[in-house]
């Protein structure tokens, strides 16, 4: 059922984030979606996929308050919200052996862990964290790859709605977020990464990704702190 502010089609309204890098970012709320990548328990809480890979997952939690504020403001403005989850079918038919067998994790994709089967759709660990839980009417994409566009139909769904611009947040910055931004870039979207709404298990990789995105005149897209987004959303039109 579609209810609540998430389903309202916002009126066309062009906003401009002056302090975006490498130069100001202009977008029409009616043609822009906020895309939150993989803010699921598997990556953010102990006992999930992130930890089985040997990572300290506590770093990622720090972005939740800023991401929640951005999500709330975007919902208030009536903008389209897309949530993704890295998720595989229970029979793992969409998980290539190359992905499952990579590295030396303590638990592999599909194995039973403290939050259910690792990275499997419908398991407790695969749920988006409560603070950012999707509302009815928001798009929720289960993606078998790192990128949000691979084998998901997301591009078609965005095209149906006339979306041309994407604001990105989520985890991890250099893996699923950057892959999704690059996929979006190749499909013709103008993407902006909200700097304080994304995090990596490796702070240096986050910093490098922000630099890579905005280098060469925005070769992948733009970056800006979420406070700049909030400021333009709250400014009277
Ligand atoms: N391992 C890691 O940094 N990330 C992933 O495996 N998936 C996402 O980034 N969502």
TrEMBL record:
> Which Gene Ontology molecular function entries are recorded, alphabetically?
hydrolase activity
Q: Which UniProt keywords apply?
A: Hydrolase
EC assignment: the record states 3.5.1.110
Q: Which domain of life is it from?
A: Bacteria
The protein's enzyme class? hydrolase
Q: Which InterPro entries match?
A: Isochorismatase-like_dom (IPR000868), Isochorismatase-like_hydrls (IPR050272), Isochorismatase-like_sf (IPR036380)
Q: Which SUPFAM superfamilies match?
A: Isochorismatase-like hydrolases (SSF52499)
Q: Which residues form the Isochorismatase-like domain?
A: 32-220
Q: In its UniProt entry, what is this protein called?
A: Peroxyureidoacrylate/ureidoacrylate amidohydrolase RutB
| Species the sequence originates in | Variovorax paradoxus
